[in-house]
Amino acid sequence: MKKPSASYPKNGEIFIADLNPSFGREIHKKRPVLVISNNVLNQVLPTVIVIPFSSIIPQFIGPDIVKINKQKGLNKQSTIIVNQLRSIDKERLVKKVGKLSKTNSQEVEEAIKIVLDLN
Known about the structure:
The chain is an alpha+beta fold. It has one domain (about 15-115): SH3 type barrels (Roll), CATH 2.30.30. Helices cover about 15% and strands about 35% of the residues. Strands 1, 2, 3, 4, 5, 6 and 7 form a seven-stranded antiparallel sheet that branches. The chain is globular, with a radius of gyration of 14 Å. The N and C termini lie far apart (about 30 Å). The mean pLDDT is about 95.
């Protein structure tokens, strides 16, 4: 592992990320993502684990989708598509735009447990 970085993406922060190119049904283009990997790994690894946001609010919201109200870093109501979580290189992170609220963070944690069958 490399030396820890003083400036690194932190768990719960929202970044704009360039998710192109993508394949098949993977979410693509520049969009907000939520960093969910832990801060110890975020300091030393060249990658982070993220979940993309979408501005499309589906009619049915299943356990893999968390509805997020407009807040710092999100200029409109959005959803976090937990089943699209993935590891990306930090080079894909364009800029930090905010931090997810504590309430929404807890909702995302619960959705991750469901999607990854961690209960």
